[in-house]
Amino acid sequence: MIFLANRDRYTQRTLLRETHNRLSKQAGCEAIRYQPSGRRPRYVIADIDTAVFLGESYEVENARLELRFWYPVGVDHEYYRINWIEPPRNLMVGFHQDADHPDLGPCHIQLNFEETAVDRYEAAFLDAHPLTVLDNRLQQLPTALESIHWQDGQPSLPDWPM
Amino acid sequence: MATPPQNGVTSWTETMSARERIRSVVETLREPRSTNWISEQADAAWSTTNQELQDLVDQDRLQRVEVGDTTLYQPDYTRLLFDEIRTLIEENAREELRSELTAITEEIEAWQEAYAIETWEELEQSLADSDLSSAELRERRDVIGFWHENEQDRQLIKHALELYSDVETAREQMTDAVDRATS
C-alpha cells in the first residue's frame, strides 16, 4: 500500500539530489557521491581540489566536503551540517544547525582539531530555503578557512563571529 | 553578512538558470510559499518566477493553494513520491534494491544491539538520561535521525520492488510500440 505519511523524507531526498547537482557545477568538487548510497542518501560528499575550489593555493592540496540536511520530527526548520574536512591536518570546520548547542542558538560554526572541538561560535540563523542557505554557507567557507589562526600547532577561530 | 574575498566558490546564480533555481526551490518546499518568497530564495525576477510557477502548475508538478487573498504554491507530493519510486526503479537493478533492504535491516539490528532497545522511540526516551555526555547525546540524536530515515527508505524501496515488474513491462511495451512504428 502506498501512503503519503512522512513526506519529509522524500523532500529531503530531493534536496540531497539538488545538493549533489549544486556541487557537480562547482569547480574543484570531484567524485561527488552519496553516503551510504544513492538508494539511501544521508550525506552528499565531495573530494575537494582545494586550489581550484578556493581559487588560490592553500595549505593542503585535498580536502573533503560532507553535507547533510535533515528534518527532525517536531522542528519547524531544517537541520544541517556543512563540513569542510582536512584529513592531512586532522581538521574540520563546519556550519551546524542542529540541537547540539542550544546555548549558541539554532546554528553555530565549529572548529575541530584531532577529534576535539577547539572553537565554537554562534552563526546567524538564515531564515531561508535550504538551497539558499547552502549557497550562503558555501560562499562563507573561504572566509571561515582564512580566519583559522595557527599558533604552536594549534588552530583557533579568533576572528569569529564575523 | 561579510562579503567573502575573491575565491573560486561560484554562486548558484552563476551555474543555474533562474528557471532551474525556481524549480529546485519549489520542488523542495516543506510548506506552501508565495511567489514573492520563492523569487527571493531563487534570486529570480518576480515575473520569471510567476511564469515558471504557472508552467509547473500546468504540468501538474505544483499545486496552487489559496489562503485568504494570498496564492501559495507547494509541490505535488504525490508526484514527488512516484518520482522517487520511478528513480529507484530506473537507476537500480532489482538485486541492488534487495541488498539495500538487507543493509537497512543490518544497520537497525546493530543499533538495537548497541543500545539494548527495539525502536528509535526508546532511544529518544533515553535522551532524558542526565548521565549522558554531550557527545553521547549527539550520537544518539544522529542515530534517531538515521533510524527514522531508514524506516521511510525501507517503505519506499519496498514500493519500488512491488512495482518493478509492472514498470519493466510497461517500458518493454513502449519500446515494442516504437519499434513497430519505425519499422
Biggest sheet of chain A: strands side by side, in what order?
1-2-3-4-5-6-7
Low-confidence stretches of chain A: none
Q: What's the β-strand tally of chain A?
A: 9
**Chain-averaged pLDDT of chain A:** 92
Regarding quaternary structure, how should these chains be classified?
Answer: heterodimer
- Which structural class best describes the helix and strand composition of chain B? mainly alpha
Count the helices of chain B. How many? 8
Give the amount of beta strand of chain A, in percent.
35-45%
Q: Tell me the radius of gyration of chain A.
A: 16 Å
What is the ordering of alpha helices and beta strands of chain B? HHEHHEEHHHH
- The amount of helix of chain A comes to 10-25%
Biggest pleated-sheet summary of chain A:
7 strands, antiparallel
Shape of chain B: extended
Of all chain pairs, the largest interface belongs to: A-B, 54 and 52 residues
Gap from first CA to last CA of chain B = 62 Å
What does this structure look like?
The complex is a heterodimer of chains A (162) and B (183). In chain A, the strands form two sheets. Chain A has a seven-stranded antiparallel sheet with strand order 1-2-3-4-5-6-7. In chain A, strands 8-9 form a two-stranded antiparallel ribbon. Chain A is built from three helices and nine strands, in the order αββαβββββαββ. Chain A is globular, with a radius of gyration of 16 Å. The termini of chain A are far apart. Chain A is of the alpha+beta class. Chain B has 183 residues and is mainly alpha-helical. Chain B is 68% helix and 8% strand. Chain B contains eight helices and three strands. Chain B has a three-stranded antiparallel sheet with strand order 1-3-2. In chain B, helix 3 packs across helix 4 (46-58), helix 5 (77-91) packs across helix 8 and helix 6 (94-115) packs antiparallel against helix 8 (134-182). The longest helix of chain B is centred in the C-terminal third of the chain and has 49 residues, at 134-182. Chain B is extended. Residues 1-5 of chain B have low confidence and may be disordered. Classes of the chains: A alpha+beta (162), B mainly alpha (183). Chains A and B meet through helix 1, helix 2 and helix 3 of A and helix 2, helix 5, helix 6 and helix 8 of B.
